[in-house]
């Protein structure tokens, strides 16, 4: 085998391994979204939502590798057919990841575990869908056409079962209001998918015409604490120092202290960190205000208790392991600083990947 052939097989293997890895991540994300929905597990729901961001990065990496492979190797018909299928599969997996995010977001909005007929139907259909996805991913990874045909039959059966559930819901004897609501939700869901895909198409058009890629997302993060005298402001200052260009950081308290904690001021000033534009602020609980943030972080303060209803596209995290320093305890302030820095770094790596560093 020539050097070029060895390189071709190596590059092809890397692409297939990355697709397998992405498929595994998507499968786990969808399963987690179903578990979060069935158990009303908000923590798992928000973890599922944020874990979709690394999946999106995997998708972009695979896309780049596929285009680079075509440019370098000028593949023959067989390899070109495989590459084109990988590109389409890459998009399909990314969309399934998005659907898992939507399920997780909806579970948070429900606020309670499903009961009765809904619980039974969701449990059955989610298990069937997971089986179809696992079989389809395995068939693709193994390039097993026969197994893929079996997966298609399973998928057809799931769609048939879903049609029956829709029909039962729409023909519910309760009243016409439920029927109209159900139809509206289905319509809005499909309309939203059209808008999402139209946006993707527009971004591809810009790339083809100008070479511009989608600008890196700037995440808006709100730190919520009890009185905004030290925890939230300290988190903002640390985030600005470590990740100045990848986020916009704010803080607010359920209550509003009159002044910043003097020990926190002294500690941060000793680190040559400017506090001029930081002051205690009261939390604005209006939905239109909260929905501006991608992530709300509760610092020793439950986000749900602090804000009430969490906006649909906002994720919530609770960091309740930060101990409150005693006055003039320099070591305790140092520990708090380091803990917040670690938590912020982990969050930004999750949101933006290695490019956030």
Given helix and strand content, the structural type is alpha/beta
Number of helices: 11
Overall 3D form: globular
Domain unit count: 2
Task: Describe the overall structure.
With 357 residues, this protein is of the alpha/beta class. It folds into two domains: 3-210, Methane Monooxygenase Hydroxylase, Chain G, domain 1 (Up-down Bundle), CATH 1.20.58; 219-356, Rossmann fold. 68% of the residues lie in helices and 7% in strands. It has eleven helices and four strands; from the N terminus they run ααααααβαβααβαβα. A four-stranded parallel beta sheet has the order 2-1-3-4. β1 (219-225), α7 (231-242) and β2 form a beta-alpha-beta unit. α1 (3-39) packs parallel to α3 and α4 (116-142) runs antiparallel to α5. It is globular and about 70 Å long.
Descriptive labels:
68% helix; alpha/beta; 357 residues; 2 domains; four-stranded parallel sheet; Methane Monooxygenase Hydroxylase, Chain G, domain 1; 4 strands; globular; Rossmann fold
Structure summarized in a few sentences:
The protein has 357 residues and is of the alpha/beta class.
Question: Mind sketching the topology for me?
Answer:
Elements: H1 3-39, H2 42-73, H3 77-110, H4 116-142, H5 145-170, H6 176-210, E1 219-225, H7 231-242, E2 247-253, H8 262-270, H9 287-290, E3 295-299, H10 303-307, E4 315-319, H11 330-352
Helix pairs in contact: 1-2, 1-3, 1-4, 2-3, 4-5, 7-11
């Amino acid at each position: 085998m020539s050097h070029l052939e060895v390189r071709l097989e190596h590059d092809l293997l890397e692409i297939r391994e990355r697709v397998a890895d992405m498929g595994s991540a998507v499968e786990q994300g969808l399963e987690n979204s179903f578990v979060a929905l069935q158990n009303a597990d908000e923590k798992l729901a928000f973890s599922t939502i944020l874990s979709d961001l690394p999946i999106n990065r995997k998708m972009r990496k695979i896309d780049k590798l596929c285009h680079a492979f075509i440019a370098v190797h000028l593949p023959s018909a067989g390899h070109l057919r495989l590459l084109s299928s990988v590109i389409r599969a890459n998009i399909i997996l990314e969309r399934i990841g998005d659907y898992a995010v939507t399920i997780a977001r909806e579970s948070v909005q429900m606020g309670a575990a499903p009961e009765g007929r809904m619980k039974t139907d969701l449990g059955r259909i989610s298990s069937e869908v997971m089986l179809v996805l696992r079989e389809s991913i395995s068939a693709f990874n193994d390039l097993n056409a026969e197994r893929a045909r079996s997966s298609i039959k399973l998928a057809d059966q799931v769609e048939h079962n879903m049609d029956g559930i829709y029909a039962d819901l729409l023909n519910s004897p309760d009243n016409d209001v439920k029927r109209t609501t159900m139809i509206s939700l289905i319509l809005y869901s499909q309309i939203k998918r059209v808008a999402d895909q139209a946006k993707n198409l527009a971004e591809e058009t810009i790339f083809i015409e100008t070479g511009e890629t989608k600008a890196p997302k700037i995440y808006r993060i709100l730190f919520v604490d009890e009185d905004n005298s030290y925890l939230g402001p300290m988190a903002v200052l640390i985030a600005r120092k470590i990740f100045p260009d990848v986020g916009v950081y704010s803080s607010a308290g359920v209550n509003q202290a009159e002044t910043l904690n003097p020990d926190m001021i002294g500690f941060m000033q000793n680190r040559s960190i400017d506090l001029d534009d930081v002051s205690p602020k009261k939390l604005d609980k209006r939905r239109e205000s909260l929905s501006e943030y991608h992530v709300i972080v509760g610092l020793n303060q439950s986000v749900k208790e602090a804000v009430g209803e969490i906006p649909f596209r906002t994720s919530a995290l609770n960091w309740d392991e930060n101990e409150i320093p005693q006055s003039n305890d320099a070591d305790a302030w140092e520990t708090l600083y380091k803990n917040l820095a670690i938590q912020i770094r982990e969050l930004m790596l999750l949101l933006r990947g290695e490019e956030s560093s």
